[in-house]
């Protein structure tokens, strides 16, 4: 009695490889393609310039990296931005209030 079978993460089956939305893969592939193009176009042995060339792939990989309690870093950064930029005062409009402010 009271034994229910609830999957731990039922939305994981809707994700590609269990981690990625299609937009996550698009962001990552765009970063990797830009990095590959820059690697083929710019020939250098300067370590600082090589790090700059690798930045698009590193940034895109950072954005789609999974994070506990959130989908990925992009979702976490979006939630942080929305928290600090949106309205902070919320008005209760529930079923037990008829629209009058107390």
3D architecture notes:
- Helices cover 49% and strands 5% of the residues.
- The chain is mainly α.
- The model has no long low-confidence stretch (mean pLDDT 80).
- The longest helix is centred in the first third of the chain and has 20 residues, at 22-41.
- The termini are far apart.
- A hairpin with a 2-residue loop joins strand 1 (66-67) and strand 2 (70-72).
* Annotation field: number of helices: 3
Biggest pleated sheet? 2 strands, antiparallel
Strand tally is 2
Strand order of the largest sheet: 1-2
Compute the CA-based radius of gyration.
22 Å
Question: Can you describe this structure in just a few lines?
Answer:
The chain has three helices and two strands; from the N terminus they run ααββα.
Keywords for this structure?
102 residues, two-stranded antiparallel ribbon
Topology of helices and strands:
Layout: H1 22-41, H2 47-63, E1 66-67, E2 70-72, H3 73-85
